[in-house]
Amino acid sequence: GQRFSSHGKGETSNDFSFNVARWTKQVWNKMFGKYLLVTNVLGSGILMVVGDIIAQEYEYRHGLRLQDRYDGERMYRMFVAGALQGPLHHYVYNWMDRVMPQRTFRNIVNKILIDQLFMSPACILIFFYTICYMERQTLEQTHCELLSKFPYIYLMDWLVWPAAQYVNFRYLDTKYRVAFVNVCTAVYNVLMSYMKHDFGIEELLEPAGASQIEIQKETLAPTENKTS
Description:
globular, 0% strand, mainly alpha
C-alpha cells in the first residue's frame, strides 16, 4: 500500500509537470503565432520600460534624480512610445522576409540598410514626438530637442544595430525578429532614456535659455574654483 501511495504521488507530480509544459508550449505558440502582433506591440512597450527603469536607477544612484527613485509617469510615456513602434517593426520585418526570403549575404545587407536608413530614423522620430507630446511640449520645443539629440542617437544606432541585426536576419525566424530587437532595445534604451531625460538640453528649450545658461555658469563658477 505504501509503494502504491508513493507511486501515485509520483504520477501526480509528473502529470502536473506535463500539464505545465504543455500549457507553456500552447501559450508560446499563440504568442508567436495567432497573437504575434499583440506580442510585438506589448513587448516593445514593456522592454522600453525595462530600459527606462535601468536608466532611472542609474540616475538615482549617481545623484542625477532629486525626486523619487522611480517616475511612474515617465515609465508610462516610455511604454506608449515603445508600443507605438511595435506595429512598424512587425509589418516591416514581415514584408522584408516576404520580399527577400533567402538568407543570402546580399539580402541580409539589404535588410540591414533598410533597417538603418528607414526604420531607425522612423523609430527615433516616433520616440521623441510621442514623449514630447505627452510631456506637453510645443512642436518648436520638440524640433529643437530632436535636432540637438538626433545626430548622437543615430550615430549610436550605426555603432550598435548592424551587428545585432545581422544575427537577427541571419539566424532567427521571422516570428522572433521583433522579440529579438526588443530584448536588444531594452539595453539600448538605457541610452535612449538617458539622452531623452538627462542630456542637459532642457535649458535650451526655455524662452530665455541662453541667459539662464550664463546665470548657471556664473553661480557654478565659485563652486568650481573652490573644488579646484
